[in-house]
Amino acid sequence: MDALLAVEGLTTGYGRKQVVFGASLAVRAGEVVALIGHNGAGKTTTLKALAGLLPAWQGRVVFDGAPVERASSAARVRRGLAFVPQEHFVFADLSVAENLELGAFSVADRRLAAGRHEAVLTLLPVLAERRRQLAGTLSGGEQRMLSLGMALMMRPRLLLLDEPSLGLAPLLVERIMETIQDIVRRERLTVLLVEQNIRHALAIAARVYVMRTGRVILEESGAAMAARGEWWDLF
């Protein structure tokens, strides 16, 4: 099966500082793929470059058969690529419902956007219960859910998820991971997940790429990675 996302020799960074060195990976339609590694390995930087938030200095990024390494972030969103950052990216002074409406900025047909609004609330019932509540008053886990909901409003084909478990209590992490699995199944969504906690990543990922000091050093199935038991030697 052809890859929905194919990355070859991606090099990028911040200013003059190079962070990612020739990274290559692929994600097939319907897959959940994890990119793991220690803090500072270049995982988030890679996602930002794939989302168009950082320039690709070198390399190719092909999404759904089309090169997008020079495309703007907005153009990538219109093609169906959505990025959920590790920070709680919500508008604190707006309600949950208003945040979701803003998430649908790329949907031109307002009737479709309204229908998508109800579909997302069905996928994330905690948001339905708080649709009139100001986003800034939500808990950390609820804000993470809202960030996810805003991305889903675009009806993406590929979701780039950056550390969804970061800073959350263990019970909330389990809930987030279960929600992601449910969304993947019901929406037939493709996901590239960055996660520092390997056990969390292996709970939902079919394949895993390992990053170290800005380089992808290993690709392995989730089952093979789980069978290792210990992973300290990879980093």
Question: What is the fold's blueprint, element by element?
Answer:
Elements: E1 3-14, E2 17-28, E3 32-36, H1 43-51, E4 58-63, E5 66-67, H2 73-79, E6 81-84, H3 96-103, H4 110-123, H5 125-129, H6 140-152, E7 158-162, H7 170-187, E8 190-195, H8 198-202, E9 207-212, E10 215-221, H9 222-228
Parallel strand pairs: 3-8, 3-9, 6-7, 7-8
Antiparallel strand pairs: 1-2, 1-4, 4-5, 9-10
State the main characteristics.
four-stranded antiparallel β-sheet; Rossmann fold; 235 residues; single chain; six-stranded mixed β-sheet; 28% strand; 10 strands; alpha/beta
CATH class of the domain at 1-79 and 194-230: Alpha Beta
Structural Rg? 17 Å
Helix content: 25-40%
Class from secondary-structure proportions: alpha/beta
- The count of DSSP E runs of length 2 or more, i.e. the number of strands, is 10
| Largest sheet geometry | 6 strands, mixed
Query: What would you call the shape?
Result: globular
Proportion of beta-strand residues:
25-35%
Quickly count the helices. 9
Largest sheet: spatial strand order: 6-7-8-3-9-10
Topology pattern, helix = H, strand = E? EEEHEEHEHHHHEHEHEEH
What is the architecture of the domain at 1-79 and 194-230 at the second tier of CATH?
3-Layer(aba) Sandwich
What is the CATH topology of the domain at 1-79 and 194-230? Answer: Rossmann fold
